[in-house]
Amino acid sequence: MWRPDLPSGSAPLYERLADVMECDVLSGRLIAGTRLPPQRDLAYALGISVGSVTKAYAEAERRGLLHARVGRGSYVRGIAAATRDGPTFESEASESAGNDVIDLRCNTPPPVPLAEALNKAVSELALRNALEPAVQYVPSTGLAVVRMAGAQWISSRYGFDCTADDLIQCNGGQHAITLVFSSFCRPGDTILCGSSTFYGARVAAEHLGMTLRGVTMDSQGLLPEALARAAAETRSRLLFTVPTLHNPTTRTMSRTRRMEIAEVARQYDLTIFENDAYYAYADPDGRPPQIATFAPERTLYLVSLSKGVCPGFRLAFLALPRGMARDRILRGIRALGYCPPTLGALVFARWVEDGMADAIADSIQAEAGIRLEMARAALGVLMSSPGAARTPHVWLPMSALEAERVAARALRGGVEITPPDVSIVSDDADTGLRLCLGAARDRETLLRALAVVTDACTRHQLCSGEGIM
């Protein structure tokens, strides 16, 4: 265990501890990927308060010396990030130069050039005198022109028919999830979901004081009989699901499975919250209909622009069944932010009008396909076959212990992966590692990252004598 010698001085104790950490990183005593001691253990070893160690770790993270991850620990980032003023823009953006950790944790679409299209749209909106709503309060449901564009987009790209009146504009998918959880449940209530699920749903439930109950999954996602059993045992009234390219396992429910889930929901009076963030990545000729088409009277349907057009717009659309909880949702919007932001939404509406949104989405889909083939070539049988033609993330199934060791080995090699336990809801969850292919700034960076991950998996097998599940 790292146990530094604390120098004397007039600086606060936490600053002196952070200074020692920085010196040890620069000298090579602490190398990139080293896991630092738990704060309580280091406090005991040094004879100081846990609060001082906590503040020292926070200061070290501010300086760019370490990554701290809830439930996983704190890891040294390395010499490139060790600056007293924190990580510079250049060090954060220097993945392709090999000077910093390649971060494959953020599930973002592959990067495509957007600056020119953005400037053009803003200029055209200004010429139309159409930017005024961007500096004013707007209705809680969002602007009519934006919701009309959303309805057109969802119909053409997702094959799901809705009208502007069916939609509520949200400040991104995470806002919509928090909004629905807080509108349909109270602190202490149970929300059903897969045995592993989108980490954002876990964050929202924990923040709101609610409990997620994991439902057993198979290769197609939620098992209907397990859902029925969980609904009967918990008397929950809300099911959260990602049926297409499930995050993190990339599984996709078949048409039959979606029909079965809809029937169980009717039997137990469950409201279904269908997060369809990845539906646009599926093959249009073979993708199954949304669960909302089988249970339209009880399904809240969510589409986010973050995974397929532009994460920075913070724009999502929530389609509500006619007459269901609209007032509750609108009260939630006013409580959480009063009204949605509009500048990015206005640009999106303009892009839908002139076809730029389709062009951007097509470019993202094409790049996602190329990156998926790169992942297949590098990882081979280590990677599960995703349940869609393209995907921004892939899944490497393995035991929880293997996943921890492979992630640590990859971090030492300069690649950071989503901690394997962040998506787990119940003990029967499938375990493994999620790689976010869109997070790398370019193909060259992704190729280097994939080589590191493949090597980490292979070396672990050789060292342990175990095989990847």
UniProtKB/TrEMBL annotation:
**One Pfam family for this entry, by name?**
GntR
Please tell me whether the keyword Transmembrane is annotated for this protein: no
Q: Which CDD domains match?
A: AAT_like, WHTH_GntR
Q: Which UniProt keywords apply?
A: Aminotransferase, DNA-binding, Pyridoxal phosphate, Transcription, Transcription regulation, Transferase
Query: Domain HTH gntR-type, which positions?
Result: 11-79
Q: What would you give as a GO molecular function for this chain, any one? A: DNA-binding transcription factor activity
Q: Which InterPro entries match?
A: Aminotransferase_I/II_large, HTH_trans_reg/aminotransferase, PyrdxlP-dep_Trfase, PyrdxlP-dep_Trfase_major, PyrdxlP-dep_Trfase_small, Tscrpt_reg_HTH_GntR, WH-like_DNA-bd_sf, WH_DNA-bd_sf
Top-level taxon of origin: Bacteria
Q: Which SUPFAM superfamilies does the record associate with it?
A: PLP-dependent transferases, Winged helix' DNA-binding domain
Concerning its family, UniProt says:
In the C-terminal section; belongs to the class-I pyridoxal-phosphate-dependent aminotransferase family.
* Designated name of the protein: PLP-dependent aminotransferase family protein
What is the source species?
Answer: Gluconacetobacter tumulisoli
**Classification of source organism:** Bacteria, Pseudomonadati, Pseudomonadota, Alphaproteobacteria, Acetobacterales
